[in-house]
Amino acid sequence: MLRGVVLTAALGGFLLVTVWARRPFLYEAARTVFDEDKQRTWQRNWDDHPSFRRRTCSTRPASTRWSAWPARPPRRRPPPGSGSTHCPGLVDTPALAPHRRALRDRGLRLADPDAVAAAVEAVLAGPGTGQVWAVQAGQLAAVVPATEVPLAAG
C-alpha cells in the first residue's frame, strides 16, 4: 500500500508541476493517442475556444486532489450514527403505468404508494437506526434481520 501511495503522490506532484505549463500534461498525453484528424481538431479547439481550454484545464485541481487523497491516513472510526434503510418492493407509480398489466400477469403485486409512505413514516418515527426495512404489497412493513459487517482496519 505504501508503494501505491508514493507512486500516486509522485504522479500528483508531476501533474501539479504541469499546471503552469503552456498546455497541461494530460492534454498533450491525450493528443498522442489520437489520430491526426482528432489531433488537429483538439489543436483548433484549444486555439479558438477559451471554454475548451478551461474544460481541459479544469482536470488539474481534481488531479491534484486525487493524488493527495491516498496519502491521508484512513478513517478508523465509524461515522456517528447510522440511518435506517428502507427497501420497498415494487411500488405502483406513474412510471410503471405502461407495464402494470404485464407485471400483474406475471403474478407480481404492486405496493400502494400511500402504504409505502406510511411505512417510511413508521421507520422515521421509530427509535432504531441502522435497520433494513422491507415493504411488500399487502404486508406490514417489517425489519429485515441484517448482519453487521465490520469495516476492515488496515
Going by helix content, strand content and strand pairing, the class is mainly alpha
Largest sheet: 3 strands, mixed
Distance between the termini: 10 Å
Shape, please? elongated
**Amount of helix:** 40-55%
C-alpha Rg, in Å? 26 Å
Instruction: Give the number of helices.
Output: 7
Low-confidence stretches: 58-71
Q: What is the count of β-strands?
A: 3
Beta content comes to: 5-15%
User: If you average the pLDDT, what whole number results?
Assistant: 68
Strand order of the largest sheet: 1-2-3
Region (Disordered): 55-93
Could you characterize the architecture of this molecule?
The structure is a single chain. This protein has 154 residues and is mainly α. The protein has two domains: 2-71, no CATH class; 85-144, no CATH class. The protein is 49% helix and 7% strand. The protein has seven helices and three strands. It has helices at residues 2-17, 25-33, 36-48, 50-57, 59-68, 100-105, 113-125, and strands at 85-88, 132-135, 142-144. The protein has a three-stranded mixed β-sheet with strand order 1-2-3, with helices on one face. A hairpin with a 6-residue loop joins strand 2 and strand 3 (142-144). Helix 1 runs antiparallel to helix 5 (59-68). The longest helix has 16 residues, at 2-17. It starts with a helix and ends in a 10-residue tail after the last strand. Residues 58-71 have low confidence and may be disordered.
